[in-house]
DNA sequence: AATACCTACAACCGCCTTTCG
DNA sequence: TCGAAAGGCGGTTGTAGGTAT
């Protein structure tokens, strides 16, 4: 269906930065008329040569009286990072937890400050995990050293594949967590939302809002303060958990028998907490900008298709050179995704490829078993029933 | 002093969902 | 029930100011 740009029919309307005079006109009109009935009609009524959409954006992002100007505080920074780790680029959702801040402002701040900050700290701002480029480089260098300078290519490829497998596992967990959050929390507690919960869990730094009472039905699914505290420690104490290492036991092998276990694994263990790009649950048919579609704006079931393995191999090759550490931050792969029905095929294919490799075969069979058990939420699991 | 480059952020674009006649 | 209008959202671009060469 689609629809034409709102200003297409208004050829000749002014674009670009607003002048103080225009601001005053818009402010005066809204003050006198008590807000806006129709943004499309507003420009004419206010005597502005702007399209309604431009007026709305100017009002919501700049002129609104309740907007807090000035730099972000450390608490706000932490909160943004935590919330971004939990929900990804859901700027409007994040903005609801930072009164006085607009989604646009938070988005800009993330893109210009926080993303670089995390990146420079060795954290991938997309996955909120240690940067994989550094891990691959380090693994390659270690292997080169161990081999006395022999070819490192096989080792690099292996690490790339294992990283890719980790990413795929994470995406499954991300989907599961959202399913659990939606299925358990929402119906039992209208008004309760995961965002608020996360904000409260974030060291009590929820700005200007009272922490909601967590409904009893989600007690066992509630993020504990310690979890996000642990997450913060990853940033501020440089206590970063390791990614899968060659020959080691993958972190996913930790018992994942409850929703809490899932979150534990994500926040404090093996997996990225959330984000976009590699971990982004982008649905098929994302916009021309590559942005998420509206269907992904609620906490609905997300797709968890892993990136293709061939990419992993290519990444290994890509880093096998002088520019190994110069990974561009914006190169965030956005794997095509599909509803869960497509996931099995994708993962079946990937698992088949993984099984071709003895080194990681045992790892993944246990992982899939755990996942399948988790999906069914079988009460027969001792750990699960004891926590419930 | 001039130019190129970088950074920050306001504003725009195009897609989506919701609303309403 | 349907389709158009309206509003919302996230990604991207444009621009002004600052800094480096």
From TrEMBL:
Signal peptide: none
Top-level lineage group: Eukaryota
GO cellular component, one term: nucleus
Domain Myb-like: 10-63, 64-114
Keywords per UniProt: DNA-binding, Nucleus, Repeat, Transcription, Transcription regulation
Annotated spans, Disordered: 278-299
InterPro entries registered for this protein in UniProt: Myb_dom (IPR017930), Myb_TF_plants (IPR015495), SANT/Myb (IPR001005)
Annotated ranges, domain HTH myb-type: 10-63, 64-118
Record's subcellular location: Nucleus
UniProt xrefs under SMART domains: SANT
A molecular-function term among this protein's GO annotations: DNA binding
Main location: nucleus
Cited PANTHER family: F14D16.11-RELATED
Name of this chain's protein: Uncharacterized protein
Organism, as annotated: Zizania palustris
